[in-house]
Design goal:
InterPro entries: Integrase_cat-core (IPR001584), RNaseH-like_sf (IPR012337), RNaseH_sf (IPR036397), SH3_Tf2-1 (IPR056924)
Protein name: Integrase catalytic domain-containing protein
Domain Integrase catalytic: 1-73
CATH architecture of the largest domain: Roll
CATH class of the largest domain: Mainly Beta
CATH topology of the largest domain: SH3 type barrels
Radius of gyration: 23 Å
GO biological process, one term: DNA integration
Structural class: alpha+beta
GO molecular function: nucleic acid binding
Number of domains: 2
Length: 189
């Protein structure tokens, strides 16, 4: 068809097939990163490694191996997470406000700076995409936010113990939420 030739290699000499070497190295690195310090548990991580490999998009084809075979994108654990409905923000509601780099005053932005303001009241709807918030006095930035930077605040007591939510407290970290958001934005169907 495309002038390809099938060349057989023995099971114990994969060096004769360059593509197998590449895949073996890739899977070895993937397993190494999954098992971490628990080297003897590598067999428990094989299903995760297989899913990750089959879900990864190939640069040359632009498709994942799963997509090539089944003509669909596999659903992963992150697809099961309910997305917050960011469009339902009303005057009087309380929201999380996410600060972007450009909203920090000059020389105050730091990569480790807190990026969320918790329990902020919406005081005015300027247009369907823009809202004015009642910010705490220690926050020195504009009080106008785009709706994409607002998340409805539920206000239950579990929020106080949630260490993944970075709400302008230096000991908290929102790296997990950011990774999930980036993944969901990238893989919207």
């Amino acid at each position: 068809m495309v002038d390809t030739q099938l060349q057989f290699s023995s099971a114990y000499h994969p060096q004769t097939d360059g593509q197998i070497e590449v895949v073996n190295r890739l899977l070895g690195n993937l397993l190494r990163s999954l098992v971490g310090e628990h080297v003897k548990s590598w067999d428990l991580k094989l299903c995760q490694a297989e899913f990750a490999h089959n879900h990864a998009v190939n640069r040359s084809t632009g498709f994942s191996p799963f997509q090539v075979v089944y003509a669909t994108i596999p659903k992963g654990p992150l697809n099961l997470i309910p997305l917050p409905n960011r469009s339902k923000v009303h005057v009087g509601d309380f929201v999380w406000a996410i600060l972007t780099k450009d909203q920090y005053p000059a020389r105050e932005y730091n990569k480790l700076s807190a990026r969320k303001i918790r329990s902020v009241e919406v005081i005015e709807k300027i247009n369907p995409n823009t809202y004015r918030l009642k910010l705490p006095s220690h926050i020195r930035t504009t009080d106008v936010f785009n709706v994409k930077h607002l998340i409805p605040y539920t206000g239950d007591s579990s929020d106080d113990d949630d260490l993944r939510a970075n709400s302008l407290r230096p000991w908290e970290n929102d790296a997990v939420e950011e990774a999930v958001s980036r993944y969901l934005e990238k893989n919207r169907f």
